[in-house]
Amino acid sequence: MPNRERILAGVMSGTSADGVDVALTRIAGRGTSMTAQLIHHHHHPYDAKTREEIFAFRGGDANVNLSRLAQLGRTISLAYATAVNEALAAAHLTARDLAAVAAHGQTLHHAPPNTIQWFDPSLVAAAVGCPVVSDFRRADLAAGGQGAPLVPFADYILFRHPTKNRVLLNIGGIANLTYIPARASIDQLIAFDTGPGNCISDYLMRRHDPSGSGYDEGGRRAFPADPLEPLAKQFWSYAYFSKPHPKSTDGPEMIEAWERAVRETGYEDAPLNELLATACYATAGTICDAILRTFPENAIEVIASGGGTRNEAIMSFLEVGSDKILTTEPLGIPTDAKEALAFALLAAATLDGEPSNVPSVTGASRAVVLGSITPKP
Fold first, then answer.
1. Taking the CB of residue 187, how many other CB atoms lie within 10 A of it?
2. What is the number of other CB atoms lying within 10 angstroms of the CB of residue 5?
3. Do 136 and 150 touch, CB atoms closer than 8 A?
4. How many angstroms separate the CA atoms of 176 and 241, rounded?
5. Residue 307 burial by Cβ neighbours in a 10 Å radius (0-12, 13-18, 19+)
6. What whole-number distance in Å separates Cα of residue 365 and Cα of residue 360?
7. According to the model, what pLDDT value does residue 323 have?
8. Which of 370, 363, 368 shows the shortest CA–CA distance to 113?
9. Strand partners, 373
10. What is the pTM of this model?
11. SS3 assignment for the chain
């Protein structure tokens, strides 16, 4: 019966490509009446070579080829399977306890109507030993939508409130928000990508030290420096930021806009810490502007998640431009687990034959069932 309680493993690897997050989630009910309880969250990092390959494809490396693409798909898929199996072992569960693995795949390209979330569901199904639900974007794209953001369905289930207007802010490689008015129905949601999250800061770190970690841990390099105001203002003039929603973007678009702004303002040789500070300042500015532009008259509670919540520079600039930002942690969901948990809910809807896109958010012509099901081998 579709209303029974079941456990799903939501699996997510974001555009920052730092690794794979697994959220073992107990789900009851169906549709927007579902409830979710996080059983265990586990992070499995990508190795340096895998991250390098992902960014080679996302950055348009001229040397990439079909053989490397095929191998990358296998590598990503085995990382997903390893992450799930590690999570199951840590939670003292087995594949027999899972209704399915819900796997988003690794985004290599997203420019609607075209998208690539790269990964092999059959390989994961074989390596874990249970069905896999994947390929969540395409049904929405086929209905004329952006294929993103998809998380608002889960945000509505997890965070709607009878008296509070809430903005759920996720700061990953790209930052996105979901606005849930008090007492809202799901078709009243507003959600879109605000612009960069960590992607520009990560790009600067990869360029500065190709063999390093690929990110500014905690924003420590950025935090002491002052942002370059002319560079930030030039970046903010990029057309995407004033474009009406529904809209979505991807890291390469934001990095290209950043590089153009750097050239136009002559900051090519600026110190790394000042560029990092400016990237964080520019990110926070696009988020604050999106919130204030879209919800100018509503008292709202902003609840953040994603890796960007650990970047002190981003968060400090956000607090200057808005009321104090909360996180999902006090509500029982680790900031790194929310998106993986969201895909567990999306997959539960798929198994139940329930639509889980939100047409008012993606621009799709109709509500559709998302995802493809790969059976247990």
1. 10
2. 11
3. yes
4. 12
5. buried
6. 9
7. 63
8. 363
9. 133
10. 0.92
11. CCCCCEEEEEEECCCCCCEEEEEEEEEECCHHHCEEEEEEEEEEECCHHHHHHHHHHHCCCCCCCHHHHHHHHHHHHHHHHHHHHHHHHHCCCCHHHEEEEEECCEEEEEECCEEEEECCHHHHHHHHCCCEEECCCHHHHHCCCCCCCCCHHHHHHHHCCCCCEEEEEEECCEEEEEEECCCCCHHHCEEEEEEECCHHHHHHHHHHCCCCCCCCHHHCCCCCCCCCHHHHHHHHCCHHHHCCCCCCCCHHHHHHHHHHHHHHHCCCCCCHHHHHHHHHHHHHHHHHHHHHHHCCCCCEEEEEECHHHHCHHHHHHHHHHCCCCEECHHHCCCCCCHHHHHHHHHHHHHHHCCCCCCHHHHCCCCCCCCCEEECCC
**Residue 17 near residue 24 (C-beta atoms within 8 A):** no
- The answer to whether 292 and 257 are in contact (CB under 8 A) is no
Q: What angle do CA 268, 273, 274 make, to 5 degrees?
A: 55
- Is residue 299 over pLDDT 80? no
Q: Across residues 90-101, what is the average pLDDT?
A: 98
Each residue's pLDDT tens digit, 129-163: 999 999 999 999 999 999 999 999 999 999 999 99
How confident is the model over 173-209, as pLDDT tens digits?
Answer: 999 999 999 999 999 999 999 999 999 999 999 999 8
pLDDT of 71 reads 97
What span, in angstroms and rounded, lies between the C-alpha atoms of 103 and 133? 6
Tokens of 67: 């053989």
Tokens of 75: 């590598």
pLDDT-derived band of residue 1, with 50, 70 and 90 as boundaries?
A: very low
Q: Which two tokens stand for residue 275?
A: 């560029």
As a residue count, the chain comes to: 377
Phi-psi region of 363 (alpha: psi -120 to 50; beta: other; left: phi over 0): left
Pairing label, strands 300-305, 165-171: parallel
Average pLDDT of every residue of the chain: 93
Q: Among 45, 15, 48, which Cα is nearest to 210's?
A: 48
Residue for token digits 């198994």?
351
pLDDT class of 213 with cuts at 50, 70, 90: confident
Contact 272, 305 (CB under 8 A): no
